Amino acid sequence: MIYQEQVMQIAQVMGGYSLGSADLLRRAMGKKKVEEMAQQRDIFVSGAIKNGLAKSKAAELFGLMEKFAGYGFNKSHAAAYALIAFQTAYLKAHYPAEFMAACLSADMDDTDKVHIFIEDSIANELTILPPDINLSSYRFVPTDNKTIRYGLGAVKGTGEAAIISICNERVQNGQFLNLFDFCNRVDRRIVNRRVMESLVRVGAFDSINPNRASLLTSIGIAIESAEQISRSANQANLFQENGDNLLEPQLIVSEPWDEREKLLQEKLAFGFYFSGHPFGTYTDELKQFIRTKLDRLVPQRETQLIAGIIHSVRIQMTRRGRMAIVNLDDGNARIELVVFNELFTLNRDWLKEDQLLIVDAKVGNRNYNSESEGELRVSAERLYDLAGLRSHFAKGIRLYCDSSNLPQVSRLKSLLTPYSSHKNIHPSELNTRNNTQQHTGCPISVIYHNHDASCELELGVDWQVNLQDSLLQSLSTYFDADNVKIIY
To answer: How far apart are CA 206 and CA 137, in angstroms?
Structure first.
């Protein structure tokens, strides 16, 4: 089979073409330009005769090249790509961890490609180990045939120089013991605060201390401590005294991040959710409302209640005003949701990335053309946040108490007042933002019981509230989570 390079070589050696002229011939063949090919025939035959080739042979040779111009270029490319496809398929089948580690390392600066490769690795039953300050290298490294260790170089905000510096220090002087040991040993001109924060966010220090919140808030004092030790060491060298007698400070005590916050922090440094999906933190509560996952949507006449995390929002201008295209992701699938002008205008302040969105949606088929037939078109009829969904479907909230937590009831009014459905609060916190009609809020009942009897006190309309997460957390703190129940 003749290849493009061989065509150019034949033109140069036998036809007397310069390198530039040979490239023009190659282009004419590739684009199948008949008139230009006729001109090139005369040029090639004349040049070949000058080089001692018979006219008939020169014409025959050009005819062969001209015939190749039909679909020869496509065939040559197809053969080359088929070979590469076979080689890569073989490597992926027989050396999956090594192959995927190489793919991830080759595109580690492209967050979107890294995410695609990681999803593909998981789909092929590979395990991606999280980054570890004491075990990870700059690139992705296979640890066995089914396991890959995440490369520190793929963490946003780090950089090759910083990671290489960390790895060299670890190889020369052993693993890092804690955050203070790390700050004291690395070159802080290269491994700066931003690098450390990114590494903490992705859990690279989890093997040392799993409380990422405490580590993140303590980076400042760790850097200050390292600088103080460095200054003391310089003074010790000057005055021949011991500069190693400084006490190591303690980490700032912080409440560990919940799963939701942990995933959001990971996304800041990875560019995507790594250890899980934030929608999973809502599934227990949502499963009593949401019957269909996004990957199982089918067209039907009635609206369907669906939910997901907002991955992105794209705004388009239409004749009727602004329209939003929301990418909704529930960890199983990602769909495009159309939010038309009126609904978008009412809810635009809180339609933001990483927010939970519950939608009363109309699901139908796209019928614009045959190519899109079978694809789903999902449009929003009504939008809810979690508080709005609770208030819309909840019949009431019950607070159970006995003599042990009866004193907490006296604080109930001050606890509920900020969440009153009759109080003017910020629009982004109102469950009524999800509806075109005002919602009255959720009724509250207090149920008291002792050894002898029990009674239920239903609070008045003025006590009705919007069921915000912060309110439920406060009630659970005062009454214990088991004593706070939402009735749907």
So the answer is: 16
| Contact predicate 218/225, CB 8 Å | no
Choose the most confident range, by mean pLDDT, from 239-243, 439-443, 480-484: 480-484
- Residue 98 is inside which H or E element, if any? helix 96-106
Say if 45 falls within a structural domain: yes
Cα–Cα distance for residue pair 362/343, rounded to 1 Å:
14
Structure-token pair, residue 266: 């990971």
Give me the mean pLDDT over the 242-258 stretch.
77
pLDDT at 379: 93
Separation of CA 250 from chain center: 33
Q: In 10 A of CB 63, how many CB atoms?
A: 11
Predicted confidence (pLDDT) per residue in 364-404, tens digit: 887 655 444 458 899 999 999 888 888 888 888 888 888 77
Does any domain span residue 296?
Answer: yes
400 and 350, same domain (yes or no)? no
Q: Indicate if 407 and 377 belong to the same structural domain.
A: no
Please say whether the beta carbons of 380 and 360 come within 8 A: yes
Q: How far is CA 212 from the centre of its chain?
A: 19
Query: What is the rounded CA–CA span in Å between residue 421 and residue 442?
Result: 8
For residues 204 and 337, membership in a common domain is answered with no
Is the pLDDT confidence value at 254 over 70? yes
| CATH number (domain holding residue 185) | 1.10.150
Q: How far apart are CA 156 and CA 269, in angstroms?
A: 5
pTM: 0.73
Nearest to residue 488, comparing CAs of 286, 237, 333, 243? Answer: 286
With tokens 């606890």, the residue in question is 415
